[in-house]
Structures are given as structure tokens and as C-alpha cells.
């Protein structure tokens, strides 16, 4: 029997030759798939899989169909002020950060008794993360409505695997699960840029260009200080620049003294002029609003008020405070516990609401009775405990859940939720993960699939009815944290089989 290239290399414990790995890492850096190092002067390639995962075409097509329906639902919920404020009040009392967001929301929208008109137009650039569970099928892990990044990296991963297939076809065939599988197209970078440019054009056409300023559409990205994921952001900026959109970057700290109101209630940025789109890659955690030099008696007040100020102007915004609230873990739980008929309240047909329900994993609120049930009857490995935090490090698994529940105060319960734990299919063939130029053979890789969607003012703004593209992050099955930055995740892409 003929020995494959991979088997020969595994015997020699070399996997791929150094030159191949170096060339792929250089391809990554050359195409902007990089993370800035802590010294701020150099970058390293983003960790990646040498060969893509395989997924059944019908599953992928189902997710492409249902995800825009989810986005449409979230878009409607995010603009439903009475529902947001009534359904999330208990969670906001339990979680100080979301308590601050709820106060900001009331400043922007008022209350049910005294509503206000929010001038901004909502631009929802959302990533819905799924795992394809072995028994339950593909289910939602979480909604990401703010700082939902890495769409450009998702497209680049697809392109990198195509580069592998063309340059080293024998290696690719040995590592891919099915040589007959077809790569799933991914134009996420172009589609997100198209959606943003469309929103910018609408704002500029509707509200005009202030007197004495240039006609050029302007995009403002709100970023964190000392951000390391700048290259993913810059890829999106370059795609916008190619569409004639001017791009600028500012922190909340900078914006607190640089924003003003222009004619026709336009948002004006100092030395730039009228802004058409504001895109938040910051604002999902308290530290983004923390400015110790201000010596505030009320922590984070000034910078959070900058966000409120933005939404009081004629500008497209992602993410609005309403969108951030609507994509919280608690809102995910609330929608999951509703019937399909109840979901039709926001304009979904019952058929579409049923499709939405098909991808929502079971979630349960935390209270004394639920804790007693969990400790007494639950199969602990079948659940994960989540708080409202974004990114990695906010989940508790298995036997650790009981200890965490015992440590919680009753007033903190509403900030947490139990969710059905998902166990995705492990890749059938080993593949090679590359991190910091070093190879590791992984024989139990599992994948998390994020589908991007873009809606502006309640309507889809992509060439695919709201669907924009995907991001795949894979990790060893034994690892709980799959983030590229905070865990053991690696960039990946999808091939399809029938």
C-alpha cells in the first residue's frame, strides 16, 4: 500500500517541511492575517489550520437561510424599546455594566411612559456563532451584535486554503477530510464593506453634506486603546476606501472632546466633518469607558455619554445600545424560551419562526429551584453556565457549575443562564495547526462557525438577502476556550459535501 505524504512525515515527526510552513505564514502576514504584538512594533501571523473542515451542504445552506431570519428578528427586537426595557430590567439590576447600558438606552429612547425619538439609523452587522452538535444538529452558541469582528479574516482563511490547494495539492489532499469536497464561497470582507458603504450613501443622500465640506462619505471606527486585532479592522477599512469611503479611527476617550452637532443634526468629527457611519469595535466592556485621568465620581460616565451623544444624531450606527441589549445572553434565553407563535410578534411568519426555533439551543434562567434541580437531577456535562460577558473566559463547565452556583448571591442570579452544551463533530482526519510558526498535529479538531449578516434600517444590505459570509474557528475538542486571542482557536474554512 502506498504511504501518504502525511504518514511519512508523521513517522519522521516533521509533519510539513519548514519551507512550506514559512511560506504559508508569510502569505498570512502579506495578506493582513496578523495580530499586533504587545510591543506595538511587529506582528505575528494568526494561528490557522493547514486544511479546511468539511460540512454537509444541506446543513450549511440551512444556516445561510435561517441566519438572516435571526438577524431580522434581532433587528426588530433591538428597536422595541418597551420590550427591551421590561424584559431585561432584572438582568440589568444584577449586572452593573448592563445596568449602565439600560440607563443609556433610556436616555436615547425614553421610557414607555415618555418615549423619545432616536435619530440614528440602526446598522446591524451581526455574527451568529453556531456549533453542529452530534445529536441536536447545528445550534446557536451566541449572538454578537457589537464588536462582531474577524469577518475579513474569515474570507482570508478561505483564500489561504485555496492557496494551499493550488501550491501543495498532494499535502492538501492528504489533510482535507474529503478530497471531493467543494470550498464554500466566502466574500465576507466585500459584503460587509458593501453593506457599510450602502448605509453611508443613504445617510449622505438623505441628510446632505454640510456647507463647505467635501462630498466624500465618512466612516468612523471606534476602537480600543492598544488594540492588537488592528489588521482585521484595517482590511475592512481598505475595502471601504476602495469604494470611495473615507475611514477614520478614534477611541471613546478621543471622541469625548472631538464630536459636535452640525446642521441638520449631523454628527461632526473635529478636523474631519460630517460622519455617515459609526462602527463600534469597542464598548462591550466597562474598561472601554474607563478614563482614570477624568477622576469621575461616577465611573465611566463621560465616555458612556459620548456613545449616547452619537445616537442622538442623523448617522448610521453599529452597534446601537438597543442592538447590544438585544444580543445579550439573557435576550437569547428569552427568545429561546418563546414559542414560534410568540416570535411572530416581530413580523416573522410562523414558518420562519419555526425555522428560527430549530437552531436555538435550550437555555434556563438561574433561580433557587433551577439550582436545586441542577444539583439533584441534571447531567452536568450537558450544560454550560454563562454570564453576560463577551469573548472568552465567561463560561463555566461540568462539575464546576455547582460550585459557581453555590458562590453566587441571589441578587446576581439574573446575570447568569444555563445553556445546553454542544458537542460538535470531531474532524475525521488529523490536520496540522500552525501557531507562531510551530506545527501541531491535531486529531480531535472541532469547529465553531460564525455567520455574518448585514441589515440597515431593518432591511438586508448584502447581495445575498442579508447573508454576508462566515468565520470558522477550530480548536481541540478537549479545550473549552476557542477564541483566536483568548483561547486555543485557529482560523479555518469550510468545504462542502453532499
From TrEMBL:
**Enzyme Commission number(s):** 6.3.2.3
- Spell out the InterPro entries in the cross-references: Glutathione_synthase (IPR005615), Glutathione_synthase_a-hlx (IPR014042), Glutathione_synthase_C_euk (IPR014709), Glutathione_synthase_N_euk (IPR014049), GSH-S_sub-bd_sf (IPR037013), GSH_synth_subst-bd (IPR004887), PreATP-grasp_dom_sf (IPR016185)
Coiled coil start-end? none
Glutathione synthase substrate-binding domain mapped to chain residues: 218-326
Q: Which cofactor does it need?
A: Mg(2+)
What are the alphabetically sorted keywords of the record?
ATP-binding, Glutathione biosynthesis, Ligase, Magnesium, Metal-binding, Nucleotide-binding
The first-level EC class reads ligase
Key word Cell membrane present: no
**Which top-rank group of organisms is this from?**
Bacteria
- Indicate the family of this protein: Belongs to the eukaryotic GSH synthase family.
Task: Supply the name of the protein.
Answer: glutathione synthase
Organism name: Enterovibrio norvegicus
